[in-house]
């Protein structure tokens, strides 16, 4: 019953917005093309080239530490071949989200995307250690998990500032969001993702990244993003503030150990490795917003 009420309130928040954000036209056409049975990669590349900002951002992401090609990729057609159909979709979704929310916001968008790309990168690394079947999927899930926050900050900025102020004083993030908005950023993000026809697995992560045990399609993916979110927030403050946690007591860690018995991770060494990742992500985001 509570979940139904939160979802209804989230729908109301989005429906009450005068100018609901939409996926850019070129991106919509590309996604529709990718949904066809036989995909012509040259046609996909030609469509992407029609949007210079999308193209520039896509190439920067592809050449980032996340994908780490053996040599720099400067041709969009080469990038399309390198990625393959599944990952083209993910790149389009990522770059479209940046484009949609590239305006006024109650939170610093550069900091928000540093957090998002950082969580994506960490989720990919943990996915590799856990033997997860698609580490790039974990990356994209990490990047888009908080789209509800950036929507709220863009359309309900005063409320977000009040939430931030209370969280900084020790209040619980999700409970404070419910008091302020009648829903959390998880329900709001899920509503947006469903309206934009995001794949179900990503919708579930957006809805369940704070409680992976609620996930039914792919609980491991939600757990990966949950842990990545915690690790990254130790280094840079996000909407929920600084984070300190004990890995052994985290439900997401328990879930991963249950589902991925071969998972082994030296926590202290991993935290140290993240220091370098922080700088890489900051450089990536700075380059994306310089386009």
TrEMBL record:
Gene3D superfamilies: Hypothetical protein af1432. GO terms for molecular function: hydrolase activity. Keywords: Hydrolase. Pfam families: HDOD (PF08668). CDD domains: HDc. Residues 20-212 form the HDOD domain. PROSITE patterns: HDOD. It comes from the Bacteria. InterPro entries: HD/PDEase_dom, HDOD, RNase_Y/CdgJ. This is HD family phosphohydrolase. The lineage of its organism: Bacteria, Pseudomonadati, Thermodesulfobacteriota, Desulfuromonadia, Geobacterales.
